[in-house]
UniProtKB/TrEMBL annotation:
Single Gene Ontology MF annotation: protein-lysine N-methyltransferase activity
One GO-annotated biological process of the protein: methylation
Domain SET: 30-272
Origin species: Cerrena zonata
Native organism taxonomy: Eukaryota, Fungi, Dikarya, Basidiomycota, Agaricomycotina
Protein's recorded name: SET domain-containing protein
Length: 498
């Protein structure tokens, strides 16, 4: 069997792809091939035809030599080699790297890729075969199907989507920083292509283990692009995994044949253990089609004031600000298991927001005597502390303060979030169950409002639409459930957290 059934995008022909694989020194098992995947784009496949299986077999599927791995360390070595043979090209790389703020390994890899893109654009032919292969790999990154959110993107108040917007902004800043290295930079690498590289790298990098000392078991990991292996798609229960050959640093993709029953199947690896919509979206730019233990962060922020004022018979109380001061996260994780949804209270203190007698103290900034008692080791003046807390109260998810100045109990005393149950006389099982039942009611009422909104959302196509579909299905399932059962599940998850 050839190593490719279809022409992967980024290559002129199957032949060109196979030549690149060979030139990169990548060794592929004869029963492995690249083909289109139902999971999206391309994937790796195994066909047991003409293959004689031995018992309990682990099969080496693909071996990628260390010279074809792209981590920040291996790219540094490649640059050192380039410096000896091609001064002009290496100076392009150096200028980019001088501008690269060392924030993450992914950003460093992106800066190298930017440099190699500019070298390729300049029409230079690199002599080193490893670098020629790298220039060809740029085409794989250019044509990877990725989530590039638009400039004027509407996050519809969703925190996960807002994070993606922030990620885009960070990379816009990096682009501005490095674009000043040459005057025609933007015409050689427009932002849209830079962003494509960014998202392709983020979706394709793997954490490859690296031993700290020879002959010892301790290891760290290097963020690394691993050509060819990066055609393997993700599954929560994968049939394959990768390993490093300790003798030469090659990466080997291994298949556990015991994990598969079919004669022909897609080879999968696990990118991330937890099936969290947030993590997948923000790290890899997609949401797996997997409804087992799927964790979705449902944001109550847009509804909390309206609903809680109604439920608690209060007027214009700022429950959103109370939650910020008390460090109560208004994103609750909903956990889907096929048609069953539970609310994860194990990691949530939402029931505390339902305690009677909590008030947002609007005049907290006038309590200068109390603020003057704060630990002064940071040597900030009272005015500076107030300005900082006001900024947090307005813009941040939480307000981190020595004293919870912004919330009083019965308008008499500041609350102590860590001892709130004791302080308010709710430190018994009955009260906790009552508060949790109210929290469940709040979530259900918010779900109804969100569902009404979701019907109106005209999301951008693709992954963002998928995000809202996942949310719609989850909330519909949640509302179909018996609220008594939800409370029982909630109480169980609270016990787990104890
Ligand atoms: C490392 S690449 C895998 C190869 C990729 N399918 C291609 O065509 O080059 C990761 C990308 O594959 C897709 N992908 C991988 N596993 C997936 C899954 N379980 N569900 C949906 N998409 C998946 C996503 O688009 C992701 O950004």
């Amino acid at each position: 069997m050839g190593i490719c059934k279809v022409k992967p995008s980024g290559f002129e022909s199957v032949d060109e792809f196979e030549k690149w694989v060979q030139a990169s020194g990548i060794r592929v098992h004869p029963n492995v091939c690249v083909d289109e995947s139902s999971l999206g784009g391309f994937g790796l496949f195994f066909d047991t035809k003409d293959y004689e299986k031995e018992q309990d077999e682990i099969v080496d599927l693909v071996r990628i030599p260390s010279s074809s791995l792209y981590s920040y360390e291996s790219l540094l070595e490649k640059m050192a080699k380039l410096r000896k043979t091609d001064v002009k090209s290496s100076s392009i790389l150096s200028r980019i790297l001088e501008r690269c703020p060392v924030k993450s390994e992914t950003e460093i890899i992106l800066c190298y890729i930017t440099g190699f893109h500019l070298i390729k654009e300049s029409g230079t032919t690199l002599e080193d075969p490893d670098l020629q292969n790298l220039l060809q790999y740029l085409e794989v990154l250019k044509s990877t199907d990725v989530l590039c959110i638009p400039d004027n993107f509407d996050d519809h108040g969703e925190e996960s989507l807002r994070t993606m917007k922030l990620i885009r902004t960070n990379f816009e800043e990096l682009y501005q920083e490095i674009s000043s290295v040459m005057k025609d930079f933007e015409s050689k690498l427009p932002f849209d292509l830079f962003y494509q590289y960014t998202q392709a790298i983020r979706s394709r990098v793997l954490e490859i283990p690296k031993e700290i000392n020879q002959d010892e078991e301790d290891f760290t990991t290097d963020t690394t692009l691993v050509p060819f292996l990066d055609f393997a798609n993700h599954a929560a229960k994968p049939n394959s995994y990768f390993d490093v050959d300790r003798h030469n640093g090659d990466v080997i993709l291994k298949l556990d044949l015991n994990e598969v029953k079919e004669d022909a199947f897609e080879i999968t690896i696990c990118y991330h253990l937890e099936n969290s919509v947030n993590s997948f979206l923000n790290c890899y730019g997609f949401i797996p089609y997997d409804e087992e233990n799927q964790v979705f962060p449902f944001s109550l922020s847009p509804y909390v004031n309206e609903l809680l004022n109604k439920m608690k018979n209060t007027t214009n109380e700022r429950y959103d600000l109370i939650s910020k001061w008390m460090l109560i996260d208004l994103n609750v994780n909903l956990i889907r298991n096929n048609n069953h949804v539970t609310i994860d209270f194990a990691s949530s203190t939402l029931p505390y927001l339902l305690i009677d007698g909590l008030n947002h103290y609007k005049e907290w900034s006038q309590e200068t005597d109390d603020i003057a008692q704060f630990d002064q080791t940071a040597e900030a003046s009272v005015e500076e502390i107030i300005a900082n807390l006001q900024d947090q109260e307005k813009n941040n998810k939480f307000v981190y303060s020595e004293e919870c100045l912004g919330v009083t109990y019965l308008k008499e005393q500041y609350v102590d979030p860590s001892l709130i149950l004791e302080q308010t006389g709710n430190d018994n099982e009955q009260s906790l169950e009552k508060l949790t039942a109210l929290a469940v009611e709040l979530i259900l009422e918010a779900s109804k409002l969100k569902l009404l909104q979701l019907e109106q959302v005209k999301a951008d196509p693709g992954i963002i639409q998928h995000y809202f579909q996942v949310e719609l299905q989850l909330l519909t399932l949640l509302l179909d459930q018996n609220s008594q059962k939800l409370l029982e599940d909630a109480m169980t998850s609270l016990c787990v957290s104890d």
